[in-house]
Amino acid sequence: MFKPMAEVAASRTVDLYVDGRLIQANPDQTLALALMEAGVSPIRHTAVSGAPRAPLCLMGVCFDCLVQVDGRANVQACMVKVSAGMRVVLQHGARALEPQA
Ligand code: FES
Q1: DSSP state of 42
Q2: Which domains does the chain have, with CATH numbers?
Q3: Is residue 63 within 6 Å of ligand 1 at its C-beta?
Q4: pTM score, whole prediction
Q5: Separation of 19 CA from ligand 1 center, angstroms?
Q6: What count of Cα atoms within 13 Å lies in the side-chain half-sphere of residue 81?
Q7: Sequential pLDDT tens for the chain (101 residues)
Q8: Is residue 85 a contact partner of residue 25, using CB atoms and an 8 Å limit?
């Protein structure tokens, strides 16, 4: 009648790519959580000192989870949900400005 939440979550996964590496994640979770569950760390390096960073607040405040998603730079991984075929590139160093359309 009822299924454990872990069993339900494990039954629904999508494929996404992080720096070309395939990982699987539940489409109901945020990208930051998917990256942490896949053992991706650090997620970025700071522009000035090159210090490693990983998601901290998980609510859009600290900006320690910035990644490139499907060609769009400086996306907060904690503020977007995982989607099938998502292509994530980890950011290292200074932020890049997006090209003008
Ligand atoms: S983890 Fe803090 S803004 Fe994403």
Answers
A1: -
A2: 5-92 (3.10.20.440)
A3: yes
A4: 0.83
A5: 20
A6: 8
A7: 677 767 766 678 999 999 999 999 999 999 999 999 999 999 999 888 889 999 999 999 999 999 999 999 899 999 999 999 999 999 987 766 665 55
A8: no
